[in-house]
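The step that takes the researchers longest sounds almost clerical: writing a folded protein down as plain text. The outcome of that step, for a single protein, is printed below.
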Amino acid sequence: MKRIFSSILIFFFLIFSLHANLITSEKFSYTLDMPEGFEISDMEQDETSVIFKNKYLDVSVLIKVWPNSKFSDSMTALKDTLTRLKANSEYSQAMWRRQKCTIASFDSPSLLEGIAKGWACSIPLPQKKGFLTILTYVPQKLEADLQQVLISILDSVMIDTGSYREPGLITSTFYPRKQSKKINLEVSGKNISTTIDSIDAEANQFVIDREFSIFTFYAKNQLPETYDAWLRFYRVLARDTMERVKKPAFDIYSAMRTEAEKSDKQNPSAALAQLLLTWSQNFNYERKSVTADKADIESIPAILEGGSSDCDGRSLLLMCLLKHCGIDSCMFISAEYSHALLGVCFPDKQGQTISVDTETGKKEYLVGETTAKDVTLGMIPASMTDKSKWMAVELP
């Protein structure tokens, strides 16, 4: 048993070292993008139960996968789990990934010395692999201070390919879709009518505020994982943004495809990326916040509606739009340069690139400056050419 457990720890260590705290169970096909600093404290040999503890925050995560044969639905699975822990709970249900999921807030005397308070969810896994049940909790006295962390953990769950590109369970529950809202975009002199949901800007802002409050803990304490926490902040925001800009991306692509093909017959995708880069360079430039306790990035749907924007908001928006257009893109951030850039992968195009190690090998991404006007793809200020000072933000 000890040898097996050691092997499992080594396996998870490799996951940690490659993907920060992106935890994946290949057996049950779920992934969590948890805040930095979580380590396994216990695990069943068959992976049905795993307990994580954070080395900086007094936060625990208990993951239990129940077989489909044991329960009829997610509500029954979660209620049984919490009842075993003598928990007082309040339940609600929500549809997510076309599955009826269950969420609960709870307090329990059985998880820690004293009362533990936390949040939990139960999600039916695809292909009837079971009910994924997750409890995340803290000592009662810390619940108010760490609630954002607990919610972030549950919101980070991904159970299939589609869930890597849409808002998480908690955000979707707190901010359900309402109705379409028309917006007008002007790209390269062309008027494009499209829609977002009326709740998108508010929901996206909820994710920004929540995740920035978590990141600032690592930054203020100058923890070794601060850079990873910064990358996670943008990664989580990008995940939440993708579905919200899917319709605008489709309408932009439909409207600009012909112009892009005329501009560059050999590589119309590169022409489209340049058209969008030029478009972003003419946005209204303004930092949303000048204080360290607030994120200075605007809600991405709000930027589409004509709101203020900075380099990171523009780069993240273009990354998401271009991904929907089938273009390999990422975002680069630099603490030393206090700047962000777009990255697009076009091997046949010349210009300044930054190398990124990916699961399929090393890739070179042309840089895109979103805030200086009339700067084309592949150009970067001479004062920012030290490529070791740039980090890539990528979606899983």
In short: Residues 1-19 have pLDDT under 50 and may be disordered. DSSP finds ten helices and 17 strands in the chain. The first strand starts at residue 22 and ends at 25. The radius of gyration is 22 Å.
